[in-house]
Structures are given as C-alpha cells and as structure tokens.
Amino acid sequence: MDRLQAMKIFARVVEEGGFAAAARAMDMSPPVVTRMVAELEQHLGTRLLQRTTRKLALTDAGEAYLQRVHAILHEIDDAEAAAAASTRDLRGTVRIVAAPVLATNFLAPMVAVWHENFPKLQLDISIDAFASDRVDEFDVTIMVAGEDFDANIVARPMLKGEAIVVASPQYLSRRGTPQEPQDLVRHDYLRDSGVAARSQTGPGRKLRLQSIDGSLPVQEVDAPAVLQSVSTELLLRAAVDGVGVAVTSRLLAEEHLARGELVHVLPQWIYSRYTVYAAMPSGRMLPARTKAFLDFLTEQVRASLAEQGK
C-alpha cells in the first residue's frame, strides 16, 4: 500500500463527501478509492469512516487522523514548493482562516489586487467565528486580540483599532442619548455573543467601558441584551436599523458614521483597544508563498492607512 497516496485519497473522500465523488475528482475508479481507504483502515487497525446508505461520517479516530493527515500533506506541499519555487513564479495555495467580519471587510477588498500580482497563487479562505482556535491548521490565521494578548504563537500585527458604542439617530431620538455609561442600563443592547462566550463570566457578562485616556475607573454596565449573535455585521446592521445600541469597531463603523446612519455614543469612552494579527503555526517552516502573502497584507494595510492619512 502506498501510504501517502492512501492519505491523500482518505482526505479527498472526506472533502468530497463520498467515495464516488472522490474518485471522480482524482480521476480514479471508485473500487480503487474504496480499496485504498479500507487498506489504510486495516493498516491502522481502526475504522476511520462510518458508512451508511445516505452519508459518510468520520469516527472519532478518523477526525483525529484527518487533522494530522492535513498537516502532513501540507508539510509535503511546503517542501515541494520550497524546492521548486522561484520568487518570480510562485505557485500553490495559501490556506487562510478568518472570522466572517475580517474575511469580508479586511481580506475581500484585497483579493483582486492579490490575483493581479500573484496569478498562480490561489487563496483558500475558510470562515470561522473562532478562527484563533485554529492557528495550527492553516498557513495564516487572521484574528483579533485585545491589549492583553500574549499567546504562544507567531503573529504579525497588521492593524490597530478601537471598539466603540454606536446607535442610529432614529433609535436615539426614541430612547434618548446616553450621557454616561450607566445610562445604558435603560437601553437595548446588541451583544456580540462570540466575545461574551470567551469572557470568564459567560454570555451574561456586563458591558465594560473604559475612558479613552484611562483617567477614570472602568464602568461595568448591566445593559439588557435584546439581540445577540456571533455575526458582527448582523449586529451592525441591526444598530443601523434602530434596534438598539451596539459595540463595534470604529473602522467598521466609519462609513455609517460619515453617512449619518450611526452616531458615536459616549465618545469619551471605548469598549476596548484591539489589534488585527496574521498568525502562523509555530515551529513550521514559512513557505515562500506564505511570506509573499504576509508581505502583501502588510503593504496593503500600510498603503490604506497612508491614503486615509493615519
């Protein structure tokens, strides 16, 4: 049995959702694909896939094995790319994972420029609200972290920003404009449940605000949530539509603020300061294609900030 080929076939079967689909994708016969996976399971002494008439599912052993197989196959691709790569003719795929809001608002605007400069380098962008948990699975993880970020990973800072409180003019005309943080107890709060889930006190945690210059005590506000979601864009849209008060990135809110669709509430207070990072797995050789992508991101952010005069 060709173990490397068997690994590739197993990974493709999972990716395609079946033996026949994997056989078509790999231009092989279905019996050969089925036999190779069976031989792999026999070699490992465990079942990797649960087969039913309707669907294919990974066993617990298969789930763990697939994660290692992806890493092994990716290392092989990196080794081949390093041996054959020319800085003028980079090829292959850069595998990226990012939270939805970063994929849409940070990465998407750069895709056309990337393709123009690196036409033979494909971007494979996965979306995960908790992207920071998957750094070891991808070439690059685009993630947001607060000022206290101190994880044991390799990360390149890309962009700094602040999270602020916003609401629509229509909402504020109905409910009044908060003058101090504690006024928010009488307002409808649009909560980011992704952030709440990561807090020590869970989804019911209080809204914590700090003064911009740090001269005042941190204010904890027990604001009643009327909507919560891991989707930053959903919450922002709800705020624009007048549903309630939201915490969002100042950068993300800028256009809405400029058009008068949102108002910066409590301008002397912020929710947090954060940094957008491009994180890489530690202990892994940095392929030329990944370095090219990181350098590209850095240059694009620098150019964008220069254009905005920041």
Explained architecture:
A hairpin with a 7-residue loop joins strand 8 (207-211) and strand 9 (219-221). This protein starts with a helix and ends with a helix. The protein has 310 residues and is α/β, with parallel strands linked by helices. 41% of the residues lie in helices and 25% in strands. It has helices at 3-16, 19-26, 30-44, 60-84, 100-107, 111-117, 169-175, 193-198, 232-240, 250-258, 288-307; strands at 49-51, 56-58, 92-98, 121-127, 140-146, 154-167, 189-192, 207-211, 219-221, 225-229, 245-249, 263-265, 269-270, 272-280. It has 11 helices and 14 strands. The radius of gyration is 24 Å and the shape is elongated. Mean pLDDT is 86; it is low at 197-204.
Question: Main attributes?
Answer:
14 strands; 310 residues; elongated; single chain; nine-stranded mixed β-sheet; alpha/beta; three-stranded antiparallel β-sheet; 11 helices
How are the elements arranged and paired?
Blueprint: H1 3-16, H2 19-26, H3 30-44, E1 49-51, E2 56-58, H4 60-84, E3 92-98, H5 100-107, H6 111-117, E4 121-127, E5 140-146, E6 154-167, H7 169-175, E7 189-192, H8 193-198, E8 207-211, E9 219-221, E10 225-229, H9 232-240, E11 245-249, H10 250-258, E12 263-265, E13 269-270, E14 272-280, H11 288-307
Parallel strand pairs: 3-4, 3-5, 7-10, 7-11
Antiparallel strand pairs: 1-2, 5-14, 6-11, 6-12, 6-14, 8-9, 8-13
| Helix amount | 40-55%
What is the CA–CA distance across the termini? 59 Å
Summing up helix and strand content along with how strands pair, one would put the structural category as alpha/beta
Radius of gyration: 24 Å
Envelope shape: elongated
Total E-strand runs: 14
The fraction of residues assigned to DSSP E strands is 15-25%
Mean pLDDT: 86
| SS summary, helix count | 11
Q: What order do the SSEs take from the amino end to the carboxyl end, as H and E?
A: HHHEEHEHHEEEHEHEEEHEHEEEH
Largest sheet: 9 strands, mixed
Please mark out the parts with pLDDT under 50 across 5 or more consecutive residues, or reply none.
Answer: 197-204
